[in-house]
Amino acid sequence: MSFYQHGLFYSTSTGKTEEVADLIQEKIGSAAPQDIADVDVSSLASYDGLIVGAPTWNTGADSERSGTSWDDVLGNIAGLDLKGKPVAVFGLGDSIGYGEYFCDAMEELYSSFKASGAKMVGHWPADGYQHEDSKALLGDGSFCGLPLDQDNEDDKTEERIEGWVAQLKNEGF
Ligand SMILES: Cc1cc2nc3c(=O)[nH]c(=O)nc-3n(C[C@H](O)[C@H](O)[C@H](O)COP(=O)(O)O)c2cc1C
Asked: Coiled-coil ranges per the record (predicted)?
């Protein structure tokens, strides 16, 4: 029996990231997903590990790409002390309609949590996606987290989550 407590936090505009958060919860067995809008971000420090997810909107902007409540709290998160805590990012996007900007907002979550000292886990190979480009690419052929495309590839989502969750467990999550 594990006494680790993992938190799962998301934001959404049209509900797709919330649906995916529910599926991730089912596969990993974390606590119920919470909308980051309903949370005092200082409480994030009380978890043993975090999974955090956002959609990408605000195409073409330099920052605040999620278009959701994350945009208001990422600065505060960067200032928290999450030293050594495993944190994994997922993102929702449209790899065809917005193929130059696929899941860009993942990069903003990644950078903010990384600045807090968190141990970033859950990088994911970019093979098998249809995007042209993304800020969330790390330069080594991987994304900084798990991108999911409910607009074009929802048939791949469950398998991707299962693979990612298995990887997180191998990475000490
Ligand atoms: C106006 C608009 C802008 C969008 N911009 C992007 C984008 O820049 N990059 C991307 O990957 N997806 C983009 N998308 C797709 C959404 O991220 C995608 O539909 C996502 O699943 C929505 O998640 P949500 O329902 O949780 O808000 C955009 C969608 C709309 C309608």
From this structure: none
